[in-house]
Every structure is written in C-alpha cells, then in structure tokens.
Design a protein that fits this description.
By secondary structure, this protein is mainly α. 93% of the residues lie in helices and 0% in strands.
Amino acid sequence: MATNDRIEKLVNIIIDLKGAEETEKSFKRVYNYAKKMAEEAKKGSEEAEPKVSKFMERWKLQAVTLGAAIAGLWTLTKYSSVASGIFNMLGASIGLLADMILVHLVDPAAWASEKILELAEAFEDLPEPIQKVISYALGLYGAFRLLKTLGILGLIST
C-alpha cells in the first residue's frame, strides 16, 4: 500500500470517527498551531542571531588559538621523539587507569550480554505472528515516544 493511500485511509477513518466538519476544524487547529510555532521560531531565531554572532566573534580568537596549540602539539609529537615518548607514556598511564577501572565491569557486561542473547533466542522461538505483534507493538511505542518527545502529540491534542 502506497504512503498516499495510507494517509488517505487514515484521514477517512478520522472523518468516519469525528465527522467531516469536526475533522476539518481539528486539521485547521493543528495547521494554525504549527504556523504559530513556526512564526515564533522564526522570531526567536531572528532575535538570537545578533547574540550568536557576537558570541562567535568574541570566541573566534580563543578557538583559533586552541586549534593552533593542538596543531603545534601534534606536530611536536610527530617530529620530536622525546615529546612523542612523553605523550605515549601519558596515554599508556591513562589506558592503564581505564583498564583497572573497567576490569570490574567485565563480569556484569558478560552476564548482560548472555541475558540479551537468551532473550533473542527466546524471541526467535516464538511463532511468527507473535513476533510480528511484539515488533509492531514496540514500533508503535517507539513512534509514540518519538512523537511525544518532539512535541507533535501536544500539537494534535490541542
């Protein structure tokens, strides 16, 4: 089924449930709200533009200086065996510290990995119709959470 057919079917279902007049009012409310939000966003971005430009102008020198310092250090480590050795030693020390901390997470990570694999195997053992229902339910839940996070559900309910 093509996307346009699905949209048309959805609109027809909404019209059947609410009636054409109520559906038109709902769509107009959603359109007007979206238009209002777009105008407010435009106004906000126009107000913010001078502030962002001022911020970028103030911090441009610091960003260039930081970039030059990083490039200088990189060049130094590339051509100086002493600097390269110092940075290698520092990196190895940090790596050792990370290993000492992370070694305690190996057993919990292995346990979690094992449980995830068991869950995947149990899912594969389910009949295909149940797999589809679970997949669709999780997909709908994910779409709902995304729409809620983006604030689109709030648009539709107003």
